[in-house]
């Protein structure tokens, strides 16, 4: 809600209420710094609300954050180039079909949309939006509501930087090659961590994510009608410019403070559209908790398709395509038989990673089993050795007919192996010297991310 009064004492009183709810910063200096930011935000909210916008602002759980700090910890869209699409099939562009469109759509009235969640002090909006769109696509295809894991993407996807940033195409590329974990079996922690998806319960089997359909991009921005038609079918992932200071404090109404030249910084999910008081709008699900906006949602002005009028959503809009009949992968042979140092077993060969598409130089080697091929789904690999956190991958998208262990740090690999390659693609290897058996150095530990923050409160 808005705050009345005009004296500095009003801001001080509001800050005391804020601290009682969220706790004090560590140290006198830290508290003073937070109050300075709070007081500045207090004045900004009052000034903007006095201008009579079509939206209102309020002091929420971000009220003690300077705007630059807010952007650094809550926005996480990473722009991608064509190489970064990996093996994710792009199933064409969603073109306007020409049928009649209803005046409003709201997927919140169904189980396609799960409750609003909070990404916390972590730039994982890309994971939240990707998962939310996938939950919607799966419900549309099966009628089965699912709560899927964002933490799986933060920890396991090599197509992003965890709490740093990421992009939906990379998230869905990863989930096409892996089972999609349920949220209950792989809960959210709002920090980077080791990938433990091998221990999770699969909500969507491997092969259940087929590809994506593009609704809008920078090369061909979506028309308003095409985007409306896509939303009529299922929720849609969009990237937007969320850098305007007003968006940090948005409380309700139809938001229209979009920059003239949009810079895409945040990923959200379109779940509907409608109109209110003569203004047409998009209905969008955010991932900043229910204490932000309209219980975690916001309405964005709709009309036209220039980046200055829609915060850029027409230039990045995609939705996942799923196969509800995806078979469970064939049961692999015992893990102890595979991914060891040479000499190799009869159903393996020394890994050949010389494909020009991989662009990777390795000093080590590993025995690579052949993948299981099925006419009904993508190839699958034998499981990783017991205790290994590396992910078996058939490398089919690179034209390689071998399974290797994809890793991020040495500790992901089997005992005696290490993780080597490039930043966005690394595999477990053993020394190439015959008889060496294991690398001499001890593996390093994983990096840790920031802890989750508090949310869900409006002063």
UniProtKB/TrEMBL annotation:
<dbReference type="InterPro" id="IPR039417">
    <property type="entry name" value="Peptidase_C1A_papain-like"/>
</dbReference>
<dbReference type="InterPro" id="IPR038765">
    <property type="entry name" value="Papain-like_cys_pep_sf"/>
</dbReference>
<dbReference type="Pfam" id="PF00112">
    <property type="entry name" value="Peptidase_C1"/>
</dbReference>
<dbReference type="InterPro" id="IPR000169">
    <property type="entry name" value="Pept_cys_AS"/>
</dbReference>
<dbReference type="GO" id="GO:0006508">
    <property type="term" value="P:proteolysis"/>
</dbReference>
<dbReference type="InterPro" id="IPR013201">
    <property type="entry name" value="Prot_inhib_I29"/>
</dbReference>
<keyword id="KW-1015">Disulfide bond</keyword>
<dbReference type="GO" id="GO:0008234">
    <property type="term" value="F:cysteine-type peptidase activity"/>
</dbReference>
<dbReference type="Pfam" id="PF08246">
    <property type="entry name" value="Inhibitor_I29"/>
</dbReference>
<feature type="domain" description="Peptidase C1A papain C-terminal">
    <location>
        <begin position="101"/>
        <end position="321"/>
    </location>
</feature>
<protein>
    <recommendedName>
        <fullName>Peptidase C1A papain C-terminal domain-containing protein</fullName>
    </recommendedName>
</protein>
<dbReference type="InterPro" id="IPR000668">
    <property type="entry name" value="Peptidase_C1A_C"/>
</dbReference>
<keyword id="KW-0865">Zymogen</keyword>
<dbReference type="InterPro" id="IPR013128">
    <property type="entry name" value="Peptidase_C1A"/>
</dbReference>
<feature type="domain" description="Cathepsin propeptide inhibitor">
    <location>
        <begin position="15"/>
        <end position="70"/>
    </location>
</feature>
<comment type="similarity">
    <text>Belongs to the peptidase C1 family.</text>
</comment>
């Amino acid at each position: 809600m808005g705050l009345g009064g005009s004296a500095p004492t009003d801001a001080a009183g509001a800050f005391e209420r804020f601290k009682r709810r969220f706790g004090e910063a560590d140290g006198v200096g830290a508290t003073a710094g937070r109050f300075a930011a709070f007081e500045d935000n207090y004045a900004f909210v009052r000034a903007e609300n006095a201008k009579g916008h079509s939206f209102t602002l309020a002091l929420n759980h971000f009220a003690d954050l300077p705007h630059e700090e807010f952007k650094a910890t809550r926005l996480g869209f990473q722009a991608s180039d064509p190489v970064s699409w990996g093996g994710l099939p792009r199933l064409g562009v969603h073109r306007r079909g020409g049928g009649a469109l209803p005046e409003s759509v709201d997927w919140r009235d169904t189980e396609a949309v799960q409750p609003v969640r909070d990404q916390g002090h972590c730039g994982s909006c890309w994971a939240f939006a990707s998962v939310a769109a996938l939950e919607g696509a799966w419900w549309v295809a099966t009628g089965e509501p699912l709560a899927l894991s964002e933490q799986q993407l933060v920890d396991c996807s090599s197509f992003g930087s965890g709490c740093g940033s990421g992009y939906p195409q990379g998230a869905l590329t990863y989930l096409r090659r892996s089972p999609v974990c349920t949220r209950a079996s792989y809960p959210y922690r709002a920090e980077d961590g080791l990938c433990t998806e091998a221990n999770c319960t699969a909500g969507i089997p491997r092969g259940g994510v087929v590809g994506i359909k593009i609704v809008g991009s920078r090369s061909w921005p979506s028309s308003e009608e095409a985007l409306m038609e896509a939303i009529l079918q299922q929720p849609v992932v969009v990237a937007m410019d969320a850098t305007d200071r007003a968006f940090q404090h948005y409380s309700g109404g139809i938001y229209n403070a979009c920059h003239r030249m949009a810079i895409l910084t945040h990923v959200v999910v379109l779940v509907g559209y409608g109109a209110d008081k003569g203004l047409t709008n998009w209905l969008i699900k955010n991932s900043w908790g229910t204490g932000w906006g309209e219980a975690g949602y916001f309405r964005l002005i709709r009309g036209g398709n220039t980046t200055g009028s829609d915060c850029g959503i027409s230039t990045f809009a995609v939705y996942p395509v799923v196969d509800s009949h995806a078979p469970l992968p064939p049961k692999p042979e015992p893990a102890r038989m595979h991914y060891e140092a040479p000499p190799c077993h009869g159903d393996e060969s020394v890994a050949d990673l010389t494909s020009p598409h991989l662009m990777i130089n390795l000093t080590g080697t590993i025995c690579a089993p052949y993948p299981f091929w099925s006419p009904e789904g993508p190839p699958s690999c034998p499981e990783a050795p017991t205790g290994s956190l590396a992910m078996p991958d058939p490398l089919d998208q690179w034209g390689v007919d071998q399974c290797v262990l994809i890793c991020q740090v040495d500790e992901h690999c089997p005992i005696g192996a290490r993780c080597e390659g490039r930043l966005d693609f690394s595999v477990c290897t053993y020394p190439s010297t015959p008889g060496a058996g294991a690398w001499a150095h001890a593996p390093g530990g994983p990096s840790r991310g920031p802890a989750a923050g508090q949310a869900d409160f409006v002063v």
